[in-house]
Design brief:
Elements: E1 29-41, E2 44-50, E3 66-73, E4 76-83, E5 94-99, H1 105-113, E6 119-123, E7 140-146, H2 150-163, E8 168-175, H3 184-193, E9 198-204, H4 220-230, E10 237-242, H5 245-257, E11 265-268, E12 293-300, E13 303-310, H6 316-322, E14 340-345, E15 348-350, H7 358-362, E16 365-367, E17 371-373, E18 377-381
Parallel strand pairs: 7-8, 7-10, 8-9, 10-11, 12-18
Antiparallel strand pairs: 1-2, 1-6, 2-5, 3-4, 3-6, 12-13, 14-16, 14-18, 15-17
Length: 385
Amino acid sequence: MVVIESNGSQGVASATFVAPKMVQRMARFHTLQVANVSKETSDCIVVDFKVPEALRTDFSFTHGQYLTLKLHVNGEELRRSYSICSSPLDKDHISIAVKKVDKGRASTQLVESLKPGAPLEVMTPMGNFFTHLDAAQERHYVAFAAGSGITPILSILVTALRTEPRSRFTLFYGNSETDRIIFREKLKEFENHWPDRLDVHHILSKGVDEDALFNGRITTTKAKELLGRFITDAIHKEFFICGPEQMMVNVSEALENMGVAKAHIHVELFSTPVAAETKKDAPPASVGEFTGTATVKVIMDGREHILQVPANGDAVLDVALDAGLDVPFACKGAVCCTCKARVLEGQVEMDMNYSLTDGEVADGYVLTCQTHPRSANVTIDYDQH
């Protein structure tokens, strides 16, 4: 029996999703060539990758997933994850949007220096920010996005409307001002293409719209007012939220206050929540709990590796990396789910979890960047990702 006693609240990222039928695979880096780089706003670019025929299966993806890039900046390896903005229905390319972050070393290098033809190390697609689509379904998809949070939403929007001809989509999109709206022209194009099935509402924090509802930030109250005015039909609804942490908390609170089941609220975190950022050390053991050094068997690519992992030391992922194992990871912050693996034997505990669903945890899956042994022998299988 696998016991996982997560100390970190799953918070807004614990939304349940209905997983589509897809092949589970361990994340791997491959070198892809940049096909095109286009400027979307003054500080945001869209990067299109060429995917060779031999890698088409590896880079097949589901709407709402992301890619992780491996970059070298001033001699240091950096890994950064960027959501896919293209649709999996367009199999000839895969695209991400990169917005330059203040003091962001990776995003600054990409936005200011990346050129077509450049080779980049790209990890195969990952992520749980989606719901199952079916041409026979009739649903109303409702999304709240702010800033670069539009990136995965765009993929979901296009894929849902193309896949489900009876479904509709409503987007509430927050930005500071008009010139900062990522994919502004593309959204207009989509509204014209699906005038009866797509509604886009822009909320500008520096706006001067006659209707105050479209000015200011998206607070809990504003989210309730937007939903109350525009989401009034009786069709089954799925909600997607992506953007700054406080906005996501506000919208999640509004939806839950309105009685929306958590199973229908999908949230994508771009970074570790502020409240958890200072949590670095392993949790202290409880009375009677295992406190020694565990023998941890790591299974990867069909091969077994034996590690000695202290109960109250580094997480399994860090010990594996120190031992020279090429285990997958991206954020190390319990957000991206890249280091996901399954516990086959023993007991473990996670510090935090912002990406695994309750069902995955019940099935024995863990984030190895947050995992510590709680028994003398543990077996963890990366091949059962």
